[in-house]
Amino acid sequence: APAWALALAWALSAPGARALENGLARRPPMGWLAWERFRCNVDCEAEPRDCISEKLFMEMADRLAEDGWRELGYTYVNIDDCWSAMQRDASGQLVPDPKRFPRGIKALADYVHSRGLKLGIYADLGTFTCGGYPGTTLGHVEQDAQTFAQWGVDMLKLDGCYSSEQQQAEGYPKMSKALNATGRPIVYSCSWPAYQGGLPPKVNYTVLAEICNLWRNYVDIEDSWDSVLSIVDWFSAHQDVLQPAAGPGHWNDPDMLIIGNFGLSYEQARSQMALWAVMAAPLLMSTDLRTISPSAKEILQNRLMIQINQDPLGIQGRRIVKEKFHIEVFLRPLSQAASALVFFSRRTDMPFRYTTSLAKLHFPCDTVYEVQDVYSGKIISSLKTRDNFTVVVNPSGVVMWYLSPLAQPWRSLRQQGPGGGAHPILL
């Protein structure tokens, strides 16, 4: 039997356990995650500011609370690998590294909670974590779930290094049940599909949505534009499988936002944010919030962008156009009949003038929209479906629109050309 069939049998084996009804992650989780920026840096003598320690997570919590992030929804402070001691204690319990986390995880959770935030932690379903720390074998699943709940943890990312397909098929559903059994609300992030290639028949997304709140489908993001593009390519190529799997309480996770680090230009940073928002992705930043540039902060704190990402319908967007001349268009349906459009350029030469119409993008006929440019804030007060418009998209950049239908479709376009004919609108 395929691994997912075993998982389904496991998930169905307890009465009332068919779905992950923990009521959590009704919108894509937002916050901060240590891994991409700080990795497994445990050398606190050489790099006291940048090592995986309670100090780092307390300082990031302070920044989230004090620099406007928390109010926008960035509420999770997530520990990744390399936080624990190299051995479990005498009772088999995971323990944090005593030098780097001298007060323990419970004290760190209490601090994070005192700032109006939530704490996430990392474990690995296997003999070791990816970084070589103690893993969570099948015999430790319930114990570790209880430990995390007692510490006051609010999210668990469960990785999959050093485990077999069979162990994953049993262990991921088992942890789901164990977390629910603690009585503490803990968002459950699974890396399971990423270890099985992310696609059917090895991955059954119907089963996955009944086990996990979010899941990593594909490889780890790196601090480069090539990495971002490879993720966008993979998600777009397989959107027929991935897009229906996402929704309130269960999300595809294309991995962290690397905006504010070293690998992306300004245009590329704007592109990652727009594409992640339209994909209904979790927005987990992995950058140094103590030193982030004003331009990166402005991208990450764009209110309309966040509103689009957090739309309550929870429909993941799709790529709807792929032009030969390297312009792509992504569409996400939103609540109240609104939509988000992303015009994305893979060109490397110069800004490109892209002309199209909402009719060509299969918007309903005889509707008039108010359009707001998500980055510039500019507004077109009434755009008819059949009107041509032109957007200028910078190399490796985006233009992103928020479109809301107007109540009176008979309103005429404000910008009239000579003789009353509508002319292309330039944003």
TrEMBL record:
<keyword id="KW-0378">Hydrolase</keyword>
<comment type="function">
    <text>Removes terminal alpha-N-acetylgalactosamine residues from glycolipids and glycopeptides. Required for the breakdown of glycolipids.</text>
</comment>
<dbReference type="InterPro" id="IPR013785">
    <property type="entry name" value="Aldolase_TIM"/>
</dbReference>
<dbReference type="GO" id="GO:0019377">
    <property type="term" value="P:glycolipid catabolic process"/>
</dbReference>
<keyword id="KW-0326">Glycosidase</keyword>
<feature type="signal peptide">
    <location>
        <begin position="1"/>
        <end position="19"/>
    </location>
</feature>
<keyword id="KW-1015">Disulfide bond</keyword>
<keyword id="KW-0458">Lysosome</keyword>
<keyword id="KW-0732">Signal</keyword>
<dbReference type="InterPro" id="IPR002241">
    <property type="entry name" value="Glyco_hydro_27"/>
</dbReference>
<dbReference type="GO" id="GO:0009311">
    <property type="term" value="P:oligosaccharide metabolic process"/>
</dbReference>
<dbReference type="Pfam" id="PF16499">
    <property type="entry name" value="Melibiase_2"/>
</dbReference>
<comment type="similarity">
    <text>Belongs to the glycosyl hydrolase 27 family.</text>
</comment>
<dbReference type="GO" id="GO:0008456">
    <property type="term" value="F:alpha-N-acetylgalactosaminidase activity"/>
</dbReference>
<keyword id="KW-0443">Lipid metabolism</keyword>
<dbReference type="GO" id="GO:0005764">
    <property type="term" value="C:lysosome"/>
</dbReference>
<dbReference type="GO" id="GO:0004557">
    <property type="term" value="F:alpha-galactosidase activity"/>
</dbReference>
<feature type="domain" description="Alpha galactosidase A C-terminal">
    <location>
        <begin position="314"/>
        <end position="397"/>
    </location>
</feature>
<dbReference type="InterPro" id="IPR013780">
    <property type="entry name" value="Glyco_hydro_b"/>
</dbReference>
<dbReference type="GO" id="GO:0016020">
    <property type="term" value="C:membrane"/>
</dbReference>
<dbReference type="InterPro" id="IPR000111">
    <property type="entry name" value="Glyco_hydro_27/36_CS"/>
</dbReference>
<dbReference type="InterPro" id="IPR017853">
    <property type="entry name" value="GH"/>
</dbReference>
<dbReference type="Pfam" id="PF17450">
    <property type="entry name" value="Melibiase_2_C"/>
</dbReference>
<protein>
    <recommendedName>
        <fullName>Alpha-galactosidase</fullName>
        <ecNumber>3.2.1.-</ecNumber>
    </recommendedName>
</protein>
<comment type="subunit">
    <text>Homodimer.</text>
</comment>
<keyword id="KW-0325">Glycoprotein</keyword>
<dbReference type="InterPro" id="IPR035373">
    <property type="entry name" value="Melibiase/NAGA_C"/>
</dbReference>
<dbReference type="GO" id="GO:0016139">
    <property type="term" value="P:glycoside catabolic process"/>
</dbReference>
